[in-house]
C-alpha cells in the first residue's frame, strides 16, 4: 500500500452536493479529509482485502 499526498479538490463541496451528500461539513469541519489517498496493488486487493471485506459485508447484512 502506498499513501499518496493530494491537493484538496477546489470543487469538492459542490460535487458532493450534486450527488445528494449535503452533510459534508458538520459543525463547520469537513466530513472527510481530501489531502491523501491510498494506492493498492492488485495482489494486495485480491489476496488481502477482498475476502475480509466480503466477510464484513455479510456481517452487516446479518445485522440488518
Structure explained in plain terms:
The chain is of the alpha+beta class and 64 residues long. It is 45% helix and 12% strand. It has a two-stranded antiparallel ribbon. The chain is flat and about 35 Å long. It starts with a strand and ends with a helix. The model has no long low-confidence stretch (mean pLDDT 93).
| Largest sheet, strands/sense/barrel | 2 strands, antiparallel
| SSE ordering | EHEH
The neighbouring-strand order within the major sheet is: 1-2
- List unreliable stretches of 5+ residues: none
Quote the distance from N terminus to C terminus: 32 Å
Gross morphology: flat
How large is the radius of gyration?
A: 16 Å
Helix proportion range: 40-55%
Q: Helix count, per DSSP?
A: 2
State which percent range the strand residues make up.
Answer: 5-15%
Q: Would you tell me the overall average pLDDT?
A: 93
Offer a concise description of the structure.
The chain has 2 helices and 2 strands, in the order E-H-E-H. The protein has helices at 12-18, 42-63; strands at 2-5, 36-39.
Amino acid at each position: 500500500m502506498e499513501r499518496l499526498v493530494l491537493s484538496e479538490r477546489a470543487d469538492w463541496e459542490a460535487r458532493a452536493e450534486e450527488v445528494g451528500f449535503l452533510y459534508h461539513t458538520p459543525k463547520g469541519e469537513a466530513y472527510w479529509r481530501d489531502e491523501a489517498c491510498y494506492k493498492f496493488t492488485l495482489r494486495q486487493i485480491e489476496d488481502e482485502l477482498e475476502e475480509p471485506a466480503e466477510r464484513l459485508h455479510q456481517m452487516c447484512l446479518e445485522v440488518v
